[in-house]
Amino acid sequence: MAKTKTSSLALFLVLATSPLLAQTTETPVEVPVVAADATTDEGLSMGVEVAGAEPGKPYTEANFEAWEQRCVKNEAGIATCQLYMLLKDGAGAATAEFSLFGLPAGTEGPAAAGATFIAPLETLLTAGMSLKIDGGEAKAYPFTVCTEIGCIARLGFTAEEVEALKNGAEATISVVPYVAPDQRVDLKLSLAGITAGLAAVDAANHAADLANTAAKAAADQ
To answer: Could you give the 3-state DSSP secondary structure of residue 111?
Structure first.
């Protein structure tokens, strides 16, 4: 059982840093080519079945006010999900991304939930990032790696911090631009819908854990 929980946590971290999950909502939607279907004598289309989400490609399962429940299916069709938000600057330009997920039940350590923050490549890494909830004290986090999609910070939240997120109205993420080290950019993170959204994500990931465990047991027989 412990092995399953460890693999689930690793999957969360891999998905969070995948370029596929880094696609913004402003990316043009790829429209599939639909084959001609049967029609009636009146020329009415009877429709054709559309395939579900492709393995490895993110899709939006549901929306919870300011948040999206984004999921990715594996080859077996089992979906792992995160709570996602695209962050914009004061001018309304897409600037960064934030993903939140609960950790599997029984995970050892102080963290009850994890998050991934992806900042632009022009971010001053040595300054790290900070996050504060409403008017509370800010907490600093380091960046861990930069890829072609941006610079990534992986955050852990205690159970108390998760409750603060659920009960809060707004969080503020602050970063420092590389070209302006004497300035700070504040990005607002609405917390509306986070309670229901995180519950949905946790339920989906718990179901995925059970399905993966059952599939592994069946394969071992």
So the answer is: coil
Structure tokens at 218: 């069946």
Going from the C-alpha of 11 to that of each of 112, 127, 209, the distances in angstroms are 16, 28, 11
What letter would DSSP give residue 7? H
Which domain, by its residues, includes 81?
Answer: 2-13+56-220
b/e map of 21-50 (b: 16 or more CB within 10 Å)? bbeeeeeeeeeeeeeeeeeeeeeeeeeeee
Q: Report the SS3 class of residue 173.
A: strand
The total domain count for the chain is 1
- Of 59, 32, 70, the C-alpha closest to 48 is 32
**More confident site: 65 or 21:** 65
Beta carbons of 150 and 120 less than 8 angstroms apart: yes
CATH number at residue 195: 2.60.40.1880
Model confidence, pTM: 0.75
Residue 6 above 60 pLDDT? no
Q: What's the CA gap between 208 and 46, in Å, rounded?
A: 34
Look at residue 105 in the predicted model and tell me its pLDDT. 77
Average pLDDT over residues 132-147: 95
